[in-house]
Design goal:
The chain has 188 residues and is an alpha+beta fold. The protein is built from five helices and seven strands; from the N terminus they run βααβββαβαββα. The longest helix is centred in the middle third of the chain and has 16 residues, at 97-112. The two termini are 15 Å apart.
Length: 188
Amino acid sequence: MQEQIRFATPADSAGILEIYAPYILETTISFEYEPPGLAEFTARIQKISSKYPYLVYERNGKILGFAYGSAYQERMAYLYDADLSIYLAPEAQNSGIGRKLYHCLLYLLQKQGFYNVYACITAENQRSIDFHKALGFRDLGPHPKAGYKFNRWLDIVWMDKQLSQPAGNPQPLKPVTALTNDDILKVF
């Protein structure tokens, strides 16, 4: 069995979208209503991966999960913070793949110079809340009726984790292009 975590490429878009689309169509985990088209989704991956790590977990050539960082907020004061996302294929859930992906992602974000990471989770997604707590995230509390999907209002929970203790002026962030698959191998 051959498995790896690596940086996503545009060629991975269809495999990633195949995992993501059911979350949109069948769950309240994603707040999107309709899956994006392949071209739009590929453009999203390219835009995000130009600044943040965008990782895939692959086993025997099949993508079973993906995780990435993205902008937490657009204002400059939030430059050293990142928002996190992770999605797994059904057969990859409860197998440790999510933990492996997140360990790599958190390591790479810290290596870039990010200080804080955040996860926005639908409050009824207890598995995700428990997953994040097990990785040292702290619950920042609910935001009642923050989203509307499937004809009902949904609460969300924000969770955070500090990657590094801020001290003095931060150094400029390292570009994601300074990271390599060798960096992933250090933690995978």
